[in-house]
Structures are given as structure tokens and as C-alpha cells.
Amino acid sequence: MSLxxxxxxxxxxxxxxxxLLALLATVLLVANLTFISAAYWISQQSVTPQAMHTLGRLxxxxxxxxxxxxxxxxxxxxxxxxxxxxxxxxxxxxGPGGDRLAQFGEDEALQLPAHLSQLPAWRNDEFRTHQLTxxxxxxxxxxxxxxxxxxxxPGAFWTGTLSASAVILALSLLFWLLVERQVRRLVTRxxxxxxxxxxxVTREENYALRAAPGNRDELGSLADAFNTMLSRIxxxxxxxxxxxxEAREAxxxxxxxxxxxxxxxxxxxxxxxxxxxxxxQLTHFQNYLNSIIDSMPSALIALDQDLFVTQWNKEAxxxxxxxxxxxxxQPVLLAFPxxxxxxxxxxxxxxxxxxxxxxxxxxxLGEEVRQYTLTVYPLSGDAGRGGVIxxxxxxxxxxxxxxxVQSEKMLSVGGLAAGMAHEINNPLGAILHNVQNIRRRxxxxxxxxxxxxxxxxxxxxxxNRYLEAREIPRLLDGIQSAGARAARxxxxxxxxxxxxxxxxxxxxxxxxxDQAVEIADSDFDLSxxxxxxxxxxxxxxxxxxxxxxxxxxxxxxxLLNLLKNAAQAIHQRRDGEPGRxxxxxxxxPPWAEIQVEDNGVGMxxxxxKRIFEPFFTTKEVGDGTGLGLSVSYFxxxxxxxxxxxxxSMPGQGTQFTLRLPxxxxxxxxxx
Length: 671
Description:
The chain is of the alpha+beta class. Among the domains are: 296-393, PAS domain (Beta-Lactamase, 2-Layer Sandwich), CATH 3.30.450; 398-498; 502-671, Heat Shock Protein 90 (2-Layer Sandwich). Helix content is 57%, strand content 16%. It contains 20 helices and 16 strands. The chain has helices spanning 3-9, 12-59, 62-68, 72-82, 119-125, 155-204, 218-295, 314-320, 324-327, 332-335, 343-352, 395-441, 447-456, 460-469, 472-497, 509-522, 524-530, 552-571, 605-609, 628-639; strands at residues 88-94, 100-104, 130-135, 143-149, 299-303, 309-312, 356-365, 368-378, 387-393, 505-507, 536-540, 548-550, 580-588, 591-598, 643-649, 653-661. The protein has a five-stranded antiparallel beta sheet. A hairpin with a 2-residue loop joins strand 7 (356-365) and strand 8 (368-378). Helix 2 (12-59) packs antiparallel against helix 6 and helix 16 packs across helix 18 (552-571).
């Protein structure tokens, strides 16, 4: 066993005594070393220099120095007398010329300079205490005495030091014995008694034993704490006995309850199975409801009373651009910013708890703006406060309603056109007939006119010259032209109002379109006012399209109206871009499509919506009647059971699309 392990296993009292003994030995050793070091320092720094100074003064007296410098033998005798001084280790005597006359103490470790001039170099390598004393001479230069002190401490000093150390050690041992006795009485014995008591309690398991009361120190506190611990252990032991008895009773009671618990567990297992089945059914039903909500074409958004999103289907995510996980538990305006203009109505509907319908809400979906209807349904019953927003796309419905209104206008104006045509025809016929009569009665070629002029004394040729000078024939031409134009308007009105009883015949569309272009080329108004022949006519005919059932002259009339409108729209451009009209046919079952596209000025949306209304025109007074497109619309939709649409952007041109059914529609009665 190592010394460290033995020291660790010593009793506490012996550890204290060993520590005290080590402390005393350390103090004694340090004190002796300190005393020796101090004595050595005093000897080297004070006593030895003073003694060497005294020897130097003594040797410098004329009675000793003058004879010693006379010869080397006298110098050796003086040094022999100085050698009796123990601290002196070496000495040398130098004559007036600096030569060394005598010395003692020279060995390998101490090399004294042979000449006085070597003394500075010798001092650099010598660390012993030395002194150079000048020996004056009555006649001539002085001599010098070099004394070197010993670095050893005198033996008497060592004897005194050891004697003092022995006395101190004896006194320390006596003090240690006294301390050991007190430590044994005050520390070791109480610890031993407490150890024996603990062993006895452990061996006998008798927690009624107690330690004897001690002093009011740490050991006494330890004994009191040990007694307190024994008291608590004794109380715990009694409590454990009572607890064991109670545990036995509880075990018997628990055993009786175990059977009841097993019965309850079996019942709970059955309830858990039923509950799991119900939860699965509820989950399936919830998924089914979510699938229904997501598959609806309308956007559905459920909100709480603070307008935070609680439900969000796929259509709502598509319209808003916000995914379900990003929209849930977010304010509706953050998830669907486009609803901000409707916020006040949403809040009002939820606060008043009534259904609110918001019509024609424009929402941008990419570059396209579509119209939607928002319906707010407040929640009722146990669902809590809040509501549901349904967003329906009504863009197609509005277009259908617009078409229905247009059709109703066409039908309502039919009766008006028929009545107006009959009322206008009678005075119009009288005007045209009277113009013809005036021309005939002014003609000198008729015999009756000449006879009547001679009977009246009037020169018929002079009258005609007067009428020519006053441009009366030109005025009559204007009356006849205006009448003919009015007759054409009446004819359009009658064709607009009457049923078409003409038969549809299969017709090839490209020749029909080319014929309409030829008529437009020869039309006086188009040639004179709009320079129709200067326009570039492009054709894009679908070779797959065969003959289409139609009324050739009516379809030709429609195309001629569209060509006139295109020429006028191109004529209104002021940017110098060459005019272009594109004529296109397409096979798009069940329709045959004809498209007339121009690069004219286009039209705004407000004009586009009213373009097919009778008598609606954007031309100047006298340039148009507003019946061309309305009659064309009637010919396509009523006589051919087709469709007519227009798409236009201001500054980009206009495109008319005619759709004719490929199969001949059944004959129907009515207007």
C-alpha cells in the first residue's frame, strides 16, 4: 500500500497530528535555512568587509608597510602574519612598480593578478569579497595590498545554529505531545464513540439508541444531528409499519376491485371500437364534404365573426391565388385582396344576419377581367357567428342576357319597322312618281308638252334653258336620289320585319365572298369616299370547308355591310398605316365560320354592346341609318339560325364572326 493510501486511511485524529507534525518540521527547516542565509549575508556584506578594511589600515602603517616593500622576503613575512586571520583566503603584495612581491592562497580556482595593471580584468571574473589597500612610501610611489575574503561560514556559526535547532525541535515535540493529548480528548474520542454508536445501530437495528451530548462545537452538532436522524428514522419505521398494514388492507381491496376493473376495461374496449368506427365514418364524411365543396364550380369561403377564413375550396384558391394552407386562419382581405371593395357589405350582412347579394363584381384572372356575383350567407344555429361567401362566375350569363336583350330588341322593333314601312311607302311613292311626272312634262320630246306650251305662249326650250341655268334638273336628281334611298331604307325595314320564307341552298362560301368584294369594288360610295380599291384584301379560306346551307343574296348583303363598315373604320385612321381587311373561313363543327377582320380604329366597349341595335349609329347625320348591322344580325340569327359576334379593341381593329350551321335548320314559324 502506498504512503498516500496509508495517509488517506488514517483516523481523523492521527491525520490532524500528522499534519501538525509536518507543519512543525517545515517551520523548523524554513527557520534554520533563513537564519543561515541571513548569517551568511551579514558575514559577506558587513563583517568581512569591515575586518578586511581593518587589516588593510593596519598593514598601511609605515612601521609595517615600509619594511614589507623593501624585499620579497619581508613581504612574505607580512602576508604570513595576515594569514592567521581565518576569513582571509588569499592576499598579494605589490611593489611601487606594480610587480607582485609575495602572495598566498593561489590555486587553480583563485588566480591572483601578477601585475597591478591586471587587477581591473581580474575583478570582472571574480565574485569574492576583496579589497585593495594603498601602502604609502615616504620616497616614491606607493605599494598595494590585495586582500581576498573567504566565502565559507565559520564553524562556530554552524555549531551554534545546530544547537539552537536541537533545542527548538525538542520544544516542538513537547508542544506536539500536548496538542496530541487535547486532539485525542476533543476530537478522536467523540468521533470514535459516534462511530461505535452507528455500528451498534446498524448491527442491532435499534433506532432508540442515542449519542451522549457533547460540547457546543461541530462534533456536538454532529451528535445532535445523528440523534435527530435516529428519531426521524424511528418515526419513519413506525409509519412504515402502519403503512404496511394499510397496504395489506389496500391490496385486499385492490384485489376485489381488479375484477371490476377488468369488466370495465372490456366495456371500454367495446366503446373505443365503436368510437373509432364513428370517427372513421366522420372522417370519411368530412372528406366527402370537402370533396363536394372542392368540386363545386363556385368559390366557397367560410368566415368566423372576425372575418378570418375557416374553410377554403379549390375554386377560391384559383381565383385568389392563395393556397388553402396559406388562407386558413388569416383575415379574408389578406387571403383574398380582391374582395376589399366589398368589405363594408360583407360586414353589414354578417352584423345584420341576413343574406346579401353583390352583383357584377369584376375580378382579374390573369389578363382577363371576368364578372362575378358574391352571395353572403350568415351562419345560423349551433354553428356560431360568421358566414359563408359564394362567388359565382356570371360572365357567360351576362353575355347570354345581353344577347337575349338584343334579340328582344330585334323582335320588338320588327313590328315597329313593319308599320313604319307601310306608312312611309305611300308618300314616298307619291314623291318618286311626281318627280318622274315633272321630268316627263318638261321634256320637249313629248308632243303634248309642245302643244300645251304653244297654247300658253311659252317657249318650252327657253323654259328648259332657264331650268338648266337654275339647276332645277340637279335638284330633281337629288329628290329622286333621296327618294330612292328612302325606298331602300323601307325595303331594309320590311326585310327586317318579315319572315324569311326563302329556302337555304348549299353554297360555296369563297365565290360568294369574292363576289361581295367585287360589288364593293364597284360601289360608288366606297370608291368615291373611302377608296376601297386601295385596301389590301387578304383571304384565308379553309380547304376542309365544303358547301354551306345559306341564302346567297342575303349573306352577300351581310358581307357587303361588313366591308363598308371596315372601309369606314380604316378611313378614320390617322397614323398612315396601310389598310387591310382579312376574310377568313373556318370549319368549326357544328358551325361554318366567316370572319371579317380589319385594322381600323376599333370601337369602345360601350359602342360594341349597342352595335346591333336598330337605328344606332356612330356616323354623322346623313351618312348612315343605323340599320345595316341590325339587318345583318337579323339575317344571320333569324333567317339562317346562326350566330353573329363582334370583338374589338380601340386602336387595334375589329373582327366580326359569322357562324352558320352546317346542317339546314328546321323551318320555324314566327317573326
